[in-house]
């Protein structure tokens, strides 16, 4: 039940009434403890929780953004689509709420059972059609006598647009929408029983200077297999994918072939800027490393080993004599 929010003036009036004795605080407490009854309409069975409705809203907010991008590129004009509302109502009530003549696209969404319906307001549909055929995007309402060419162009347009459903739904289900019916009269379309609960997502749509609604109807029978995935727990949990042994082997082989720079540090020292500027050929810089001390060996600038300098086959060489502890995450 929705809670009533009091304004600051109402709160001040209530406090002054309590302090003046016009109202009794004990009576207010008794009213709060009284059992509150909420009217439940069995014809409007609420089969989805608020949490699940919010999840569907998030999915279709993403779908609305994808549609905006898609139609903007296809129509080359200003397009803005956003979620206006998400409600669960009986199917019969949804059919009675849309125009008597409108654009109805029925999709199958395998592997889910059942079908979904996308209803496009005729003003929006004709603005899109006019724009695709080279017009300025003006709208005329003559949906009752669509030509064969108009029907084909519209059905292809909405079929391509709803390919974005796959991307919007991929976090919940791997669906593959397929357009199966294109209708203009809602009375000739009976997807589910009249009392079946459906979720209706209404999208505010603006094409150029024309505005209207796109309604997406999702029957309960279609959403039933994935209802657990619509809970907040599913969205919050993080699934950690374990790498396959073959993947680990490939990564190890590639790492073993990687090249690493190796440096043997003969010694270090510091000089002033003035001494550096006065350096000339033949000058000697004394290092802080004694000739009998072992050298530090660095791998990719990280100190890893201790070694001693020498020669091997007439080449300068360095022999590793010990490891530097703490020289890596695992000491290797």
From TrEMBL:
Pfam families: FliM, FliMN_C. GO terms for cellular component: bacterial-type flagellum basal body; plasma membrane. This is Flagellar motor switch protein FliM. One of its GO terms (molecular function) is cytoskeletal motor activity. Belongs to the FliM family. It is a peripheral membrane protein. The keyword Hydrolase does not apply.
């Amino acid at each position: 039940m929705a809670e009533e929010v009091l304004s600051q003036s109402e709160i001040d009036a209530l406090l002054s009434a309590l302090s003046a004795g016009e109202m009794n605080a004990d009576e207010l407490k008794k009213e709060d403890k009284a059992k509150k009854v909420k009217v439940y309409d069995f014809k409007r069975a609420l089969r989805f929780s608020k949490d699940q409705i919010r999840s569907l809203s998030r999915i279709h907010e993403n779908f609305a953004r994808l549609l905006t991008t898609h139609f903007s590129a296809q129509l080359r004009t200003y397009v803005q689509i956003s979620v206006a509302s998400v409600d669960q109502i009986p199917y019969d009530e949804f059919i009675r709420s849309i125009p008597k003549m409108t654009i109805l696209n029925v999709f199958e969404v395998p592997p889910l059972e059942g079908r979904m319906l996308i209803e496009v307001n005729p003003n929006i549909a004709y603005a899109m059609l006019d724009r695709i055929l080279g017009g300025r995007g003006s709208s005329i309402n003559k949906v009752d006598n669509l030509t064969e060419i108009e029907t084909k162009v519209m059905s292809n347009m909405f079929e391509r647009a709803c390919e974005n459903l796959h991307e919007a739904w991929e976090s919940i289900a791997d669906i593959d929408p397929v357009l199966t019916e294109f209708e203009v009269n809602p009375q000739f379309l009976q997807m589910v029983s009249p009392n079946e609960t459906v979720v209706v997502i209404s999208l505010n749509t603006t094409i150029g200077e024309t505005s209207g609604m796109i309604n997406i109807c999702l029957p309960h029978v279609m959403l039933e297999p994935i209802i657990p995935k619509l809970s907040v727990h599913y969205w919050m949990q993080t699934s950690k994918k374990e790498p396959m042994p073959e993947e680990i082997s490939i990564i190890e082989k590639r790492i073993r072939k990687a090249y690493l720079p190796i440096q043997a540090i003969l010694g270090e020292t510091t000089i002033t800027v003035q001494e550096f500027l006065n350096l000339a050929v033949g000058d000697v810089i004394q290092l802080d490393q004694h000739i009998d001390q072992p050298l530090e060996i660095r791998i990719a600038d990280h100190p890893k080993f201790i070694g001693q300098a020498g020669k091997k086959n007439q080449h300068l060489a360095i022999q590793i004599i010990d490891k530097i502890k703490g020289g890596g995450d695992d000491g290797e």
